[in-house]
Amino acid sequence: MPEGERLSDQLEGWLRSEESKTIGSLIDVFEEKSFAALFLLLLAVPALPLPTGGVTHVFEVIAMLLALELIVGRRCVWLPERWRTREIGMPTRERFATTLLPRIRWIERHSHARLGFLLDHRLAGVVYGAVTLGLVVTAFLAPPFTGLDTLPSLGVVLISLGVLLEDPVLGTIGFVVGAAGVLIVFLLGRAAVDAIRGLF
Question: Which one of 50, 114, 123, 131 has the fewest CB atoms closer than 10 angstroms to its CB?
């Protein structure tokens, strides 16, 4: 990301450009911060009221692979060519522009880079990957059509914004939101299992 250019402007430029809106093109734009940018957009689908068109689980699987790459210490994104060339559909892009971008701009106005150098440490990348993997797996396993995947996904979005804006405080808020989502999925999931067992 060019020095001094705001994240929201960078995302808007990518969304409005004439090039194909593929996952690979997003990687090319954000370069060293591609992991966070991809987590942000991939998990915004279940985190925001977007029409998913059945792509939610596909995006979550991609996010899981990216999280594993961070855990093993990769600094550059690797994805199979089939996933790199996967295009983000026009309805989803339009909702990104109208729903996600205004929220990012609001966060940018209230966020301040604090101790951003800590995020460059290799251990920070491993922790980021491990936390993200746990939240994405929870979102993936949440019962369909319940909306329970929203909080874990929102946690990843906020943590990734914290990385992109170099704001660990924002990342910590994302962790708390995601942890609350994991707890809710666990408690409600267990209650549903107990209810089913009570029928037999």
Answer: 123
Hey, what's the torsion of the CAs at 160, 184, 131, 21, to 10 degrees? -40
Q: What is the dihedral of CA 19, 47, 149, 89, to 10 degrees?
A: -30
One-character DSSP codes across 108-122: HHH----SGGGGGSH
**2 assigned to some structural domain:** no
Chain segment 52-110, per-residue pLDDT in tens: 555 678 889 999 999 999 999 888 888 888 888 888 777 778 878 888 889 999 998 88
Structure tokens at 17: 């450009």
pLDDT in tens, 27-66: 888 877 889 989 998 898 888 765 555 567 888 999 999 9
Largest CA distance in the chain: 62
The answer to whether residue 1 is domain-embedded is no
Q: Helix, strand or coil for residue 22?
A: strand
For every residue of 68-110, DSSP letters joined together read HHHHTT-SS----HHHHTPBPPHHHHHHIIIIIHHHHHHHHHH
Full domain range(s) for residue 162 = 7-198
Say how far apart CA 197 and CA 200 lie, in whole Å. Answer: 6
Specify the residue for token string 């059509």.
145
**Is 67 within 8 Å of 132 (Cβ atoms)?**
yes
Number of independent structural domains in the chain: 1
